[in-house]
Amino acid sequence: MRPFFYFIIASLFFNILNSQKIQPKEIVNKDSLNTVIEEKNKFKFFGLTQFTFNQAYFENWVSGGESSMSGLFSIDYNINYLDKKGWVWDNNLLLSIGTTYLSGNAFFKKADDRIEINSVLSKKVNTYWNYSAYFNFKTQLLPGYRYFKKEGEDQKEKMSRILSPAIIQLGLGWYYKEGDLAWFNIAPLAARGIFVSKDYTQNLSPGQKYFGVDRGKNSIVSVGASFSGLIKSHLMENITMDNKFNIYINYLNKIENIDFEWNANIRLKVNDKISSNLIVHIQYDDDLIKRLQIRELFGLGLSIDI
To answer: Which of 20, 23, 63, 124 has its CA 20 to 30 A from that of 233?
Structure first.
């Protein structure tokens, strides 16, 4: 996993260098800092809604082809709060769900299914650094299935569902933010819990695990450290790139295994309503599956930018 980890670090570093230039930090006293805070609105709301649809149809096409249909709907909203005393509360809601169908298959299959909530409560120390407490929640919306053939017919078996698994992460540390271009949260003390339904663990074989949870149990909790953040950069006119990442180290079990997640979203804005985006999502989590997970989506569709 080390080459992939180094690749992610290098990519993030490249995007920092290519992000919008920020004015050098100025030394300000407490009174001037409070003046800046008073001038800002307490609540700030912004986000993006996207719908992408792709379709292909073939009939008697001699060069070959397979009819298909796919759709993807996603929302990515932020609610930020700042008061006069320097308290900052940043919240993000991400929902992405998609389906795909290939001719000859008996079932529609998932193209994407994610629900993620991030919340950081912090108290300003200076212009950029805050003390922080953060919360992260991840799960899925629809059931997940394993597809197979039995006696020549397509079959499916339910493997997961909403809140099974559900991943919750909490931590204390420091929060660094430069406007809407970049933020980082460093938490040397972080707890993570993976929660599942006993319906999926009670019939496991001895030694077998379900998303890292042992037979007959419904959760596993670990204590470690985390480093997460967001970097936005402008690759060229009308093309932006968002990099979200999260790195987690488990103090209690296999400290040498570094769990990481990197989600890159490249957006090409054609006009106010039409846009194209490429999503590359890479993660490795020793508890969920001991293999590298890769997800890639590309589409041209309609977007509503708030």
So the answer is: 124
Which domain covers residue 63, as residue numbers? 2-146+154-305
Give me the pLDDT at residue 306, please: 65
162: left (phi over 0), alpha (psi -120 to 50) or beta: beta
Q: Give the whole-angstrom CA distance, residue 257 versus residue 10.
A: 19
Give average pLDDT by consecutive 10-residue segment, the chain, 306 residues.
46 48 41 44 86 84 86 92 91 94 90 94 92 97 93 92 96 91 95 95 92 94 95 91 95 88 90 82 88 85 67
| CA separation for the pair 217, 198 (Å, rounded) | 6
Please, what is the Cα angle at 296 between 305 and 241, to 5 degrees? 45
List strand residue ranges (DSSP E) for 85-218, in order: 87-102, 109-124, 129-139, 144-150, 153-160, 166-178, 182-195
Contact residues for 273 (Cβ-Cβ < 8 A; gap 6+): 302, 303, 304
CB 67 within 8 Å of CB 56: yes
**d(Cα 285, Cα 257) in Å, to the nearest integer?**
9
Domain total of the chain: 1
Residue 177: name the closest of 144, 242, 145, 132 by CA: 132
CA distance 65 to 59: 8
pLDDT of res. 207: 87
CA distances from 60 to 26, 136, 253 (A): 68, 50, 57
CATH code (residue 87): 2.40.230
Residue 272: HSE in the Cβ half-sphere, 13 Å Cα cutoff: 1
**Location of structure tokens 């008996």:** 106
Look up the pTM and report it: 0.80
